[in-house]
Design brief:
This protein is of the alpha/beta class. The protein has ten helices and nine strands. The strands form three sheets. The protein has a five-stranded parallel beta sheet with strand order 6-5-7-8-9, sandwiched between helices. A hairpin with a 2-residue loop joins strand 3 (about 60-65) and strand 4 (about 65-70). Helix 4 crosses helix 10 (about 290-305) and helix 6 packs antiparallel against helix 9 (about 245-265). The chain starts with 14 loop residues before the first helix and ends with a helix.
C-alpha cells in the first residue's frame, strides 16, 4: 500500500497533523529509501531509521520475545514463516520493528515471520521471493501468509494493468483518459482481476509443493471502515489533498468490493481466507495501520492458523 509522501508533499493525509499524532512517521520520511532492483522497486538494504531497520536484502527486520531476526532466519535450519505484502506489511509509520504484522504474528505463533514486502508490491515479485526461499532454505516455511491489498492501491495510482506482468510503475501516475469508471479504466480493471487471481493461484501451488498452510488476507483500508476515530478524522484520513489524490481515492472506492470479491472467490478450499472486523482497525492514514491495527490483523492470522 502507498507510502506516505511517496509522490509529493501534497498527497494523502494531512502530514503535519499526522506527525503530531504519530511522531515516528518523521523517521520514515527522513530515512526510508527506495531502490530499483532490476525493475522491482524495493526498500534499501541495511537501513537503520531508529523506528525501523532493514537487513542486507532490504527486508524489514522483526522481533520475537525482544530478540531481532531478519530474512536469514529462513536459512538457519529452524522454523520460520513467510508474510508477504506491501508497505502495510512493511509497517510504514510504526514506532518499531516489533509492531509490524509479521513481528506481532511471530509473537503469537512463536515462529520468526519474515517481513517480505515491497512498496506497492507486485504479486509476481512476492511470489519470486517466496519461491526462492522455499527452494533454497533447508526446511519449508511453517506457513505462508499473503496480503494482496497493495495490488489494488498500486492500480489506483495508474489505472493500468497487464494481465500477466501487473501494474506499471505507480510513480508515473495515470493517463488522462483513464478516469475512474471510464471504459478504458474498466478494461484495465478486468485485466487486474486476471492478474491478481492468477498469481494468488501460484501461491497455492507453492504451498502445495512445500506442504505448508497458505493464508490470504484481503485487507480493508480506512475507506471501508464504518466510522473513523477522532484521531483519524483529525489527521484528515480519507480527505484528498490534490486532484490525483481524489481520482486515486475514487478508484479505490469504486473497485475495492469487486477486487476483494474476486480474490475471495478464487481462493481454493484448502487456502485459509482471513477476515477482520473493519470497525476494529486503527489507521495512521488511508492505507497504513497503527500498532493496534497490526495487532488486530496478526491476531486474525494466528487464529486462522490455529483453527486449521
Amino acid at each position: 500500500m502507498a507510502d506516505m509522501k511517496s509522490l509529493n508533499d501534497d498527497d494523502m493525509t494531512d502530514f503535519r497533523a499526522l506527525a503530531r499524532h504519530h511522531p515516528a512517521i518523521r523517521s520514515y520520511i527522513r530515512h526510508r529509501k527506495w531502490v530499483d532492483r532490476s525493475g522491482v522497486l524495493a526498500y534499501a538494504a541495511n537501513t537503520d531509521g531508529k523506528a525501523f531497520s532493514t537487513d542486507s536484502l532490504g527486508f524489514r527486520r522483526g522481533q520475537i520475545a525482544g530478540i531481532p531476526y531478519d530474512s536469514s532466519a529462513a536459512f538457519s535450519g529452524k522454523p520460520y514463516a513467510l508474510v508477504l505484502g506491501s508497505s502495510h506489511v512493511f509497517g510504514f509509520g510504526l514506532a518499531g520493528d516489533a509492531q509490524t504484522i509479521p513481528s506481532q504474528l511471530a509473537a503469537l505463533t512463536g515462529v520468526p515471520c519474515l517481513n517480505l514486502s515491497f512498496p506497492e508490491a507486485q504479486l509476481q515479485a512476492l511470489h519470486a521471493v517466496a519461491t526462492r526461499i522455499c527452494q533454497q532454505a533447508p526446511r519449508p516455511p511453517a506457513f505462508i501468509a499473503v496480503l494482496p491489498g497493495g495490488t489494488l492501491t498500486r492500480y489506483a495510482f495508474v489505472r493500468r494493468c497487464d494481465p500477466l506482468f501487473g501494474v506499471p510503475d505507480f510513480r508515473n501516475g495515470a493517463a488522462p483518459e483513464a478516469m475512474p469508471g471510464s471504459p478504458q479504466e474498466t478494461t484495465q480493471f478486468e485485466a487486474l482481476l486476471v492478474y491478481a487471481t492468477f498469481w494468488l493461484s501460484q501461491f497455492r501451488v507453492l504451498a502445495d509443493q512445500t506442504a505448508c498452510p497458505l493464508l490470504v488476507h484481503p485487507e480493508a483500508t480506512a475507506f471501508e471502515k464504518p466510522a473513523l476515530s477522532e484521531t483519524e478524522m483529525a489527521c484528515g484520513v480519507t480527505t484528498p489533498q490534490s486532484d490525483p489524490d481524489r481520482q486515486r481515492f475514487e478508484t479505490h472506492r469504486l473497485r475495492y468490493d469487486a477486487y476483494t470479491a474476486a480474490i475471495s472467490a478464487a481462493i481454493q478450499s484448502d487456502t485459509r481466507l482471513v477476515q477482520v472486523d473493519k470497525a476494529a482497525l486503527r489507521f495512521l492514514d488511508e492505507f497504513h495501520y497503527t500498532a493496534a491495527g497490526t495487532q488486530t490483523i496478526a491476531t486474525a492470522l494466528a487464529d486462522a492458523l490455529h483453527a486449521g
